[in-house]
Amino acid sequence: xxxxxxxxxxxxxxxxxxxxxxxxxxxxxxxxxxxxxxxxxxxxxxxxxxxxxxxxxxxxxxxxxxxxxxxxxxxxxxxxxxxxxxxxxxxxxxxxxxxxxxxxxxxxxxxxxxxxxxxxxxxxxxxxxxxxxxxxxxxxxxxxxxxxxxxxxxxxxxxxxx
Length: 162
Prior knowledge:
Elements: E1 3-10, E2 13-20, H1 27-40, E3 46-48, H2 52-63, H3 68-77, E4 78-80, H4 81-89, H5 99-105, H6 117-129, H7 134-161
Helix pairs in contact: 2-3, 5-7, 6-7
């Protein structure tokens, strides 16, 4: 696990926050920094687009003996846009309900010409081969920020229509 990214919304303004492991050996340190962030934040809703975030955090909690109460607090604050909104309240004329397809349908655009989670992993591996190439790392961060912004766009799309 090399990246945790969030879009922090404060009123109408937002800022992207990331926790990134610049090499595999930094995974535990990065996970612990993110855990402290989760522990310290109050009254929040974490919008996600699958159960993957929860299962990844559960895996890290077990792997590094992290404070289980932080994970429990997170789980109580998580809202899965995919299952609790897209699947539950809509029907789209498309073969995939993935965030790229749905958000693109409502007009959201990623900065990257070929955005995908798989590509992000490829970019990270390329970065590991040449850590001086900070452009690869920046591409990953921008892609992740855009994913976060796509979820906000989707949430706002539904809010306007409900």
